[in-house]
Amino acid sequence: MSKVLRPPQPRPDQRSPNSFKSPTCHGKYSFDNAPEDLEKIARGFISAINRRVLSSAAAEWQPISPNFRASFDQEPDLNLNREEYLRWLAKITSMNPSHVIRVMDVATYVDTETRRAEVWMTGTTSDAVHEDLVHQCVKVLEFAFSQEHGWLCVRYKRMRGPLGAEAVF
Q1: Which residue has the higher pLDDT, 142 or 168?
Q2: Over residues 59-66, mean pLDDT
Q3: Side-chain-side CA neighbours of residue 49 (13 Å)
Q4: Counting Cβ atoms within 10 Å, is residue 106 exposed (0-12), middle (13-18) or buried (19+)?
Q5: By the 8 A CB rule, do 144 and 112 touch?
Q6: What pLDDT, in 10s, does the model give residues 139-164?
Q7: Which of 152, 117, 151, 147 is closest to 25 using CA atoms?
Q8: CA 22 to CA 134: how far, in whole Å?
Q9: Which listed residue, 24, 66, 143, 150, has the most CB atoms within 10 A of its CB?
Q10: Domain range spanning residue 135?
């Protein structure tokens, strides 16, 4: 079984709008580039949220599967598809115009046999109600690869707090 694992890579969380596109799928894809490609897509999602680009038609949101689901540890009844997730983000950011997500570390795990991957991001998020309050959080993005579509995000999980990752195990 072939696996690629990259340790956390601290980098600035602002990227140009063209950097989040899924890699070209025509021809043979090199999974050696997968960690960097996946990190660009994941950081593209964060950059889009911070810039309030929340339309499903935007390029930043194209690498999301039609079967995408978003879930949150402190709101277990929420299990949102892409459109619902973007509406939820629009509501959160309109309630708190200073809302921002800061990425501290990124770790990517790629299973080349199953063509699945996870991107783990740690960082901070400003509170939706109390703008001076900042939450630590762990965000996990699950991806699947196909020749036709490239890498598509199939699942997003958010865990808040310094022990948020315990919700995963």
Answers
A1: 142
A2: 94
A3: 22
A4: buried
A5: no
A6: 999 999 998 899 999 999 988 765 54
A7: 147
A8: 31
A9: 143
A10: 3-167
Amino acid at 35: P
Per-residue pLDDT, averaged over 51-76, amounts to 92
- The tally of domains found in the chain comes to 1
Spell out where the chain has E strands. 3-6, 64-72, 75-80, 101-111, 116-126, 134-146, 150-160
| CATH value at residue 113 | 3.10.450.50
For the chain, helix, strand, coil in percent to 5 are 25, 40, 35
The pLDDT mean for the chain works out to: 81
Residue 73 CA neighbour count, 13 Å, CB half: 18
89 alpha carbon, distance to own chain's centre: 13
